[in-house]
Amino acid sequence: QKEVEQNSGPLSVPEGAIASLNCTYSDRGSQSFFWYRQYSGKSPELIMFIYSNGDKEDGRFTAQLNKASQYVSLLIRDSQPSDSATYLCAVRPSFNKFYFGSGTKLNVKP
Amino acid sequence: DAGVTQSPTHLIKTRGQQVTLRCSPKSGHDTVSWYQQALGQGPQFIFQYYEEEERQRGNFPDRFSGHQFPNYSSELNVNALLLGDSALYLCASSLWASGRDDNEQFFGPGTRLTVL
Asked: Which residues in A lie closer than 8 A to residue B41 (C-beta atoms)?
């Protein structure tokens, strides 16, 4: 079992819609969770992190965490074509150690 | 505020050769982690350096080695290159701070290594 699982996609949504990206993790002791965006040929860029159960909002992005279900998600409201990228979920199961999922490719159609 | 820098940007080597990749962390950061990202995959953790010592290591063979310098910069060395070593090598910097849930990693632009 992989430490972090993501649906590879592609996930296609029309411009202006809400994109929902999901991630599950195996280590129940994981402490914090990160979402990165990666454009083709570029390095990952941190979008946001969450470490408490519930929702955390930052602009058009909302991260949701449910530690009991070992599930973390990212919602992108009012999706734009510029949001088209691969979204990586990263989990920090212990001090200074990070595991990444393989990413979900998002396509936002104009 | 300088971000994470890596050099070189691209590198082409042949099987059996050795390669050295370099990374300078973000200003104020003291921990450097190295990742290998194959095409279509997420970053795979290679190892992490803090205070010039390897602190954690992922599931990579001994052909992969590293070093951290007193100024926190780091090198990744790969010996006896294989075709399967072709990937994007990413350096990430962070702050070694126990108990901080928001300890973030910031990535450099990466080095694209092609092994022929």
From this structure: 102-103
